[in-house]
Amino acid sequence: MTKLRVAIVGAGPAGIYAADILLKAERKFDVSIDLFDRLPAPYGLVRYGVAPDHPRIKGIINALREVLDRGDIRVFGNVDFGKDITLDDLKRHYHAVIFATGAVRDADLNIPGIDLEGSYGAADFVSWFDGHPDVPREWPLTATSVAVIGNGNVALDVSRMLAKPAEDLLSTEIPQNVYEGLKASPVTDVHVFGRRGPAQVKFTPLELRELGELNDVDMILYDEDFEYDEASKTAIASNKQVMVIDKVLQKWRERPVGNASRRLHLHFYARPLEVVGDDNGHVAAFRYERTRPDAEGGVVGTGEIREVPIQAIYRAVGYFGSPLDGIPFDKRHGVIPNREGVALHKGSNDVVPGVYATGWIKRGPVGLIGHTKSDAMETIRHVINGEGSWWNPEAPSEQAVIDLLDSRGVKYTDLEGWHNLDQHEIALGEPHGRARVKVVPRDEMIAISRAEAPVN
Ligand SMILES: Cc1cc2nc3c(=O)[nH]c(=O)nc-3n(C[C@H](O)[C@H](O)[C@H](O)COP(=O)(O)OP(=O)(O)OC[C@H]3O[C@@H](n4cnc5c(N)ncnc54)[C@H](O)[C@@H]3O)c2cc1C
């Protein structure tokens, strides 16, 4: 073997960090890496998950871009593993594959009425406001009262995007259709519900604080949620993050509630029971059971049932990975079963030769972008030392995979294509003083990337 040919599927942060770490690692052989993504543009959830009004985090794209711009990783966008390229193809052309396909869909919330019209998954809404090519352009923002279920940062992103005045998003990269949709939204009340108490939330302080800084939005908190039990008091006293969160919430409790056009209500100790529908099968109310602390940091039901009238509900109860053709999948956790990134057969725990995982598809949809770096380090260590389990490809030349994609008529996009799209989006933003305006339709993204359409 002259060169280790490695395919990485998924050009989100995990895939790009894995490629970077593999190239920089001390090793006794050359490597040649091809990075595939089903989307025409790289960066995964940094481009299509992180909220547009978080420019600092979106800025991580610059660091990822620097890695790609070195030019030693080949990028193949618009190539869907399982459809455009299969596991057998990869075995023919590579010695190993690293899956970095993340977790892109909503976890389920199994309560009656969750499929009613007006009930949405946070991931779909996030995809819409972040201009993902595969979701509809229009989002039905007709509700005045909305419930958001969940007490993590995605719930905060969704609530903030729903409540924030659209004008305050104009400086961001949101697509025009998103701006127009949000601007026309009649929403007045966004209710966020968490099963547990303020000392058990999964928000991070920075993201929570942002809610209180929104223009023309009152924060509404309820005294009954702040009768802390001993476990909560201990959590606040012993954990700095919980302490800061409590401080932020206590400050809001003291703030006079004015006459803002919109209100953001934080409800704690609320266990979802049912989404109640009207006669037309549309969301009409959210029914929940009031819980109380169980003295161990958990909660128990009180039997008290409450109902809040709403016309739309968003479940932000976590993301979930999707199975990949021919690759073992742990249905319970939504991940590729693995030991430190080495894929394992489900049940037997035997190693699956040549197959590795990193990022959210390896460890589940928790953790920040930075965590995908340490993840990748661990996985790459095993790739480098895994010679015994590498495949023996028949056609490892770099040209062979290009010939394959061409023969199948796959309109793949490459690094130069990303530069074309990037420049196009920046140019779209310039006349309006915006950093960029995202191109949303997939066909348009591909045509601009492949220089098949005039670049305005
Ligand atoms: C709404 C939201 C907001 C977030 N905000 C922040 C934040 O502010 N700060 C922070 O640090 N972290 C944030 N995160 C977390 C961060 O996005 C993740 O930690 C990180 O993106 C996980 O990286 P990944 O590469 O594993 O997955 P992803 O970023 O999801 O990348 C996976 C890639 O694989 C591709 N793919 C999937 N299936 C296939 C297939 N079959 N064939 C080819 N390609 C495929 C996808 O198109 C995607 O590009 C946020 C997450 C969400 C959901």
UniProtKB/TrEMBL annotation:
<keyword id="KW-0274">FAD</keyword>
<feature type="binding site">
    <location>
        <position position="14"/>
    </location>
    <ligand>
        <name>FAD</name>
    </ligand>
</feature>
<dbReference type="GO" id="GO:0004324">
    <property type="term" value="F:ferredoxin-NADP+ reductase activity"/>
</dbReference>
<feature type="binding site">
    <location>
        <begin position="151"/>
        <end position="154"/>
    </location>
    <ligand>
        <name>NADP(+)</name>
    </ligand>
</feature>
<feature type="domain" description="FAD/NAD(P)-binding">
    <location>
        <begin position="5"/>
        <end position="165"/>
    </location>
</feature>
<dbReference type="InterPro" id="IPR055275">
    <property type="entry name" value="Ferredox_Rdtase"/>
</dbReference>
<dbReference type="InterPro" id="IPR036188">
    <property type="entry name" value="FAD/NAD-bd_sf"/>
</dbReference>
<dbReference type="Pfam" id="PF07992">
    <property type="entry name" value="Pyr_redox_2"/>
</dbReference>
<comment type="similarity">
    <text>Belongs to the ferredoxin--NADP reductase type 1 family.</text>
</comment>
<feature type="binding site">
    <location>
        <begin position="367"/>
        <end position="369"/>
    </location>
    <ligand>
        <name>FAD</name>
    </ligand>
</feature>
<protein>
    <recommendedName>
        <fullName>ferredoxin--NADP(+) reductase</fullName>
        <ecNumber>1.18.1.2</ecNumber>
    </recommendedName>
</protein>
<dbReference type="InterPro" id="IPR023753">
    <property type="entry name" value="FAD/NAD-binding_dom"/>
</dbReference>
<keyword id="KW-0560">Oxidoreductase</keyword>
<dbReference type="InterPro" id="IPR021163">
    <property type="entry name" value="Ferredox_Rdtase_adrenod"/>
</dbReference>
<feature type="binding site">
    <location>
        <begin position="195"/>
        <end position="196"/>
    </location>
    <ligand>
        <name>NADP(+)</name>
    </ligand>
</feature>
<keyword id="KW-0285">Flavoprotein</keyword>
<feature type="binding site">
    <location>
        <position position="360"/>
    </location>
    <ligand>
        <name>FAD</name>
    </ligand>
</feature>
<feature type="binding site">
    <location>
        <position position="207"/>
    </location>
    <ligand>
        <name>NADP(+)</name>
    </ligand>
</feature>
<feature type="binding site">
    <location>
        <position position="45"/>
    </location>
    <ligand>
        <name>FAD</name>
    </ligand>
</feature>
<keyword id="KW-0521">NADP</keyword>
<feature type="binding site">
    <location>
        <position position="367"/>
    </location>
    <ligand>
        <name>NADP(+)</name>
    </ligand>
</feature>
